[in-house]
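User: Last request for today: this protein with S-adenosyl-L-homocysteine, please.
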Amino acid sequence: MAKRDVFQTAREEMVVRQLAERGIRDARVLQAMRDIPRHRFVSAELQHLAYRDCPLPIGDNQTISQPYMVAWMSELLALRGGERVLEVGTGSGYQTAVLCALAGQVYSLERHARLADRAATILAELGLNNVEIHVGDGSQGLADMAPFDAIIVTAAAPALPGPLRSQLHPQGGRMVLPVGDDRQQYLELVTRNGDRWQIERVGAVRFVPLIGRYGFRAVRRDDDDSAVV
Ligand code: SAH
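Assistant: Here's the final one, the structure of the complex with S-adenosyl-L-homocysteine:
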């Protein structure tokens, strides 16, 4: 991985000011975000903004999440290495790269083929090969590869999608996802121990909508993801 580049200082500053000083404690998460060149996941014109404290546009009406959000969601998954992880909403592939550094095998689903292709290319260029990117409706999960030790959803669902629930590992599986509509969303941490489910609301958030069978319905076929009911 390109650990030395012109953005190294900006990246270090991001980790200290935006993550560590705001309470991210997981040393592996901090190290992953120190290592992964976030600027590679945005277009050339936006690279100088890549380490700012905000989301950025990545095309197809989608955004790369704010660094803090990526760190927080990653920390909530409590990965120790070796886990099988499902990600719904590849987007730029940045969160995917962080997961690759933290877990054993990552499966990531994206509904926009163009975003999926671009993310797969960058991940390969960075030498991250413990990942499979699939194009499709991630609200249905990836039954063939289940169960997953951890599931992360990076688009807001109207409610916890049933298929993702059943694909979560019965022994200590953890899922983090935003639930809500365009007015109000909460990040939820779901943990499963056999038939015991714990659902914790950990904070208010703002994500683009999860569009799919167990998500929201797109209003138009031409994919204006911002216009949903
Ligand atoms: N973690 C990503 C966030 C991307 S935004 C990043 O930081 O770059 C959320 C992504 O979810 C978008 O790319 C959107 O196209 C995708 N998405 C929305 N609904 C989806 C679905 N049902 N299946 C798969 N991907 C979906």
